[in-house]
């Protein structure tokens, strides 16, 4: 059975690894020209019953625990005046319920667990049909095709004409390199994990990565325009906030990225295709809520187990996987929308959420 996986993110690689452990081989087609072609972004918090569960099935739990950052579970919540409303400092013996791991470490862990040749680099998919056509002019056949290729999936049109739509929030990402050395006073402000300062319609989040780089995320909701993408203009958008907000923005380097947050329709389903299915954002893209990679990895794990249980009947395996995935992903999408509204309302509403 030729299993083709489009996309080498956490979902696609978890699927390939779990299939391998269960005795089925696959090929991952990844558009990046090599594993080191680009940075992998910030950190992920992997949850016990989703991302960690998938790694356990894939036989990678011990390796994950080597890289997991218990201190990444620390959390500080402030309002726009800079008043600290909630502080969570993780004890050294606290359970690893939602530890952080650098995306690059997770990717390396998964890649190193796969047989040589499983990942085909430089394979940007241009057309998916009875066979796969790639940008480099090559083609490949398949018996089972899995779209793990994210929000702009090229596999999704085989199943549905649904497209992502904006959800009314823009994110701007910046970064502070080696914060302990370059800005030790800001390192003390941020702590070891996640830092949120929230006001009505705007927010500033920061996350300390294992490399020492701080990822700074600015959020602008409907009614709050995104300023020009310069540090001075972005800092001015937080005039009147607590003193640390503008200091954090001005301490960043010049790498600035703007992202329009989009989502697929909640409760999206499609007519079953006996050879094609989707996992992760390709299937159920939703606003950021800490669940995206976790759900993608759980999708991958459940699909791999279904295929291994019925190796001669991929159509039945796909049908069983989708029947389980639909209600689970719908619930997560609905919760992510509630979290979006909570963050848009500001710090007090978020504080009530954590109190509940």
UniProtKB/TrEMBL annotation:
MF (Gene Ontology): FAD binding; monooxygenase activity
PANTHER family: FAD DEPENDENT OXIDOREDUCTASE DOMAIN-CONTAINING PROTEIN (PTHR46972:SF1), MONOOXYGENASE ASQM-RELATED (PTHR46972)
Protein name listed in UniProt: FAD-dependent monooxygenase
Keyword Chaperone included in the entry's annotation: no
Highest taxon, organism lineage: Bacteria
Annotated keywords: FAD, Flavoprotein, Monooxygenase, Oxidoreductase
InterPro entries: FAD-bd (IPR002938), FAD/NAD-bd_sf (IPR036188)
Domain FAD-binding, chain residue ranges per copy: 3-71, 275-335
Oxidoreductase found in the keyword field: yes
